[in-house]
Amino acid sequence: MTAYILRRLLSVPLTMIGVTLIVFCVIWSLGPDTLLSAYMTGGTGRAPNAAERIIKKYGLDEPAIIRYFIWISNTLRGDMGYSMAGRMDVSKAIRQMLPSSLELIFLSLIPIILIGSRLGLRAAMNPDGPVDSVFGFFSTVGWATPDFILGLLILTGGFVFFKWLPIGGLKPVMVKGWKDYTYSTLIDSILNGRVKVFLEQLLFLLEPVMTLFLVNSAYIYQISRAGALEVKHNDYIRTARSKGLSEREIMLKHVRKNALIPVLTAGGELFASMVAGVVFVETIFARTGIGSLIADAALMFDVLTLSGCVLVISILMITANLLVDIAYSLVNPKVTLWKEIPG
């Protein structure tokens, strides 16, 4: 297990380098003239001799390999250019908007895993029964429905049936004495001691969380159900059943732990799905976050913002997959990264 974790940790830098190379190639494929125009947006383009200084700073007239290292150096210092979509530096826009999206993702992730896996185990207790049929139908509908369609339905339903449900996001900048510590309204409301702001933000998050939950919990339901059904056919389950244990006791004591391992391995795919869903959900519900920033940047062809967002999201996904692999190795010590070749 230790060797597996070390191998996964060693593979992270190589993956990071691969991601940066892909992002760099996409950026520089646009040509130096387009990039010069992009870098000259904001206040930098109005300075005297701005074009010459930008060409030198970003190495626009240098060979590709030198441009790559200059770009990496600037990126590590947080200099990714100016974001037309965010009306500020790209790094600052990402730093301010990413926490809002992460709080939406994590608040959705908790019920997705807890409820989705629970329903999957419940359905596996009596496969093809009434409960399994009902849950299976709704999970199929939920998984097949795109995020933006479901979001629009929930948005419309929230206005028609629950007129008190708000959309958008709470902007507490006008609150007296408010300080942005993390740019996450939920966390900052706790740090500022504002319980009312915390509760209001939860209300704003209700519909977006519901949208992500309904789509992604269907996937977790299918994974946990399939895992439970596979475990139920093992010999030790038949032995437990022969000892007179009830189906509920078997599910809780013997099946649940092993059936949830596939749910853990699906964490990377789930995170990727939710990141993609955030783009639509934040746009539909008028929330400020990394998803809405990507949508605005795409409409404005803001290549610097798009490349910065892709780079940050890629790093988050690499980190998430690494944590999932490490957690999987802890719950299943038999896992290995590759088969050892006998000497």
TrEMBL record:
- Cellular component per GO, a single term: plasma membrane
Q: Does the keyword Transmembrane apply?
A: yes
| CDD domains noted in UniProt | TM_PBP2
In this chain the ABC transmembrane type-1 domain maps to: 98-328
Q: Provide the membrane topology annotation.
A: Multi-pass membrane protein
Indicate yes or no for the key word Transmembrane helix.
yes
A Pfam family (short name) is BPD_transp_1_N
The entry assigns this protein to a family as follows: Belongs to the binding-protein-dependent transport system permease family.
Protein name from the UniProt record: ABC-type dipeptide/oligopeptide/nickel transport system, permease component
The species this protein belongs to is: Mesotoga infera
